[in-house]
Amino acid sequence: MLDQTKDSLQRSLRMLAKTYARSYLKRQRKQVVDGLDRLRTNPGGGQFEEALEHLGQHHRRIVVGHFKIIYRVLGKTIVVTDIFDSRRDPDGMKG
User: What residues contact residue 3 under an 8 Å CB cut-off, 6+ apart?
Assistant: First the structure.
C-alpha cells in the first residue's frame, strides 16, 4: 500500500472518530484490510472507476463498508492509489 493510501485511510478514520465509537472504527479498518487481501487473489474483480476514466489508467474499485478502495493492476502488481470514504464528495478523488 502506498504511503499516501495509508494516510488517506488514517485521515478518514480520524474524521469518523469524531462521531463513531472505537469499536466501529476497528471494524471498518478490518473490513478494508480484508478487502485488500481479497484483491490479492482476485485483482480483476473490481469495477472500473468511472470518476477516474479521464486519466486513462484503468483504475478499478471495490467497495468495502463505507470505503472505496481505488487501485490499478499493472501486470502482476496491484497498486492501491486511494482508500476513499464513499460518503465524501467523489470530486475529491479526481486528483
Answer: none
Question: Are the beta carbons of 45 and 62 closer than 8 angstroms?
Answer: yes
Burial profile 20-37: b = 16 or more Cβ within 10 angstroms, e = fewer:
eeeeebeebbeebeebbe
Q: Which CATH superfamily is domain 3-87 in?
A: RelE-like (3.30.2310.20)
pLDDT averaged per 10 residues in sequence order, the chain, 95 residues: 76 88 92 90 92 94 91 91 75 53
> 25, 11 in Cβ contact below 8 A?
no
pTM: 0.80
